[in-house]
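Z., the sequence and structure:
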Amino acid sequence: MRGTTLRRGGLSLRVDTRGMVVGLLLAVAALGMGVVLVGTGDFPIPAADVVRTLLGEGDPTQDFIVNELRLPRLLVGLLVGAALGLSGAIFQSISKNPLGSPDVIGFSQGSAAGGLTVIVLTQGSPLAVAAGAVVGGLLTGLAVYALAWKHGVHGYRLVLIGIGASALLGSVNGYLLTKADDLDAARAVAWMTGSLNGRDWEQVWPLLWSCVVLIPVVLWHSPALRMLEMGDDSAYSLGVPVERTRTVMMLASVLLLTAATAAAGPISFVALVAPQLARRLTRSPGPNLLPAAWMGAALLISADWASQRAFGSDQLPVGVVTGLLGGVYLVWLLATERKAGRI
């Protein structure tokens, strides 16, 4: 399907029909998997009963299980997946590189380092750990941006400096783990794996408000971000404030990533994979922000379901599943890029 042009009076609007349809289907898939996920557990609930309970027509037992125990986990999963998908789409668009993902260029490691510092050095509460993850991600973003700056921030320089920052921060995280006592080390490892287990409304509300504030900012700058993919000179000629747009979008992307990490720990590879799968489905140029967000949500919810059902009685943290699948995808991506002569 090709784009459609809508005209009214002297105004015209170009609509990407295929992108809209793909985004809608991904949204339906994410919400459908969410219903399946809510019905999964030691007390299984049929999908029809889940929907009926969400609409306020379930019995008291189902109402407690669905709305109090499982719905917060679902909402955190949807919001974290959407935030990671958006963050990855922004960074890949800015860097013009499929490896330009927060997982690869150090921002996820920075958030992990912030949370890990709070756990190991202060034995802080979950709220303090979340704040540490936000601060760590922001400081990492500022450092990488400053080091990558040379008459502007360009794609490969950003990726290379980010990879170096990721390696350095990975070593810092390893050192912090060696300094922790057994209890703090176990807590830190569990947090760094990334998990939706035990998530409640305390994690939902901060993440929800972060998305409510940041997603409109990202979508407002989406046309300018698309023009940036044509190159700085072309964007300048079209009236785009290049550095301001790049700075705002990078800041929004880092904040989305840190909010997601604060809520669920550092979940790997969703930010790398979701934007690329969305772009392959839409077959559209540009960052494809909304399809990437829904793809991230669908991937994370599906991975969480698999972590509960695919390994028998041994439930894995969702970060283990995304890391396994994402690692396979990364190897395939590197092989494809090398074959095409781009690396």
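The two ends are 32 Å apart (CA to CA). The chain has one domain: 4-339.

Let me know what you think.
H.
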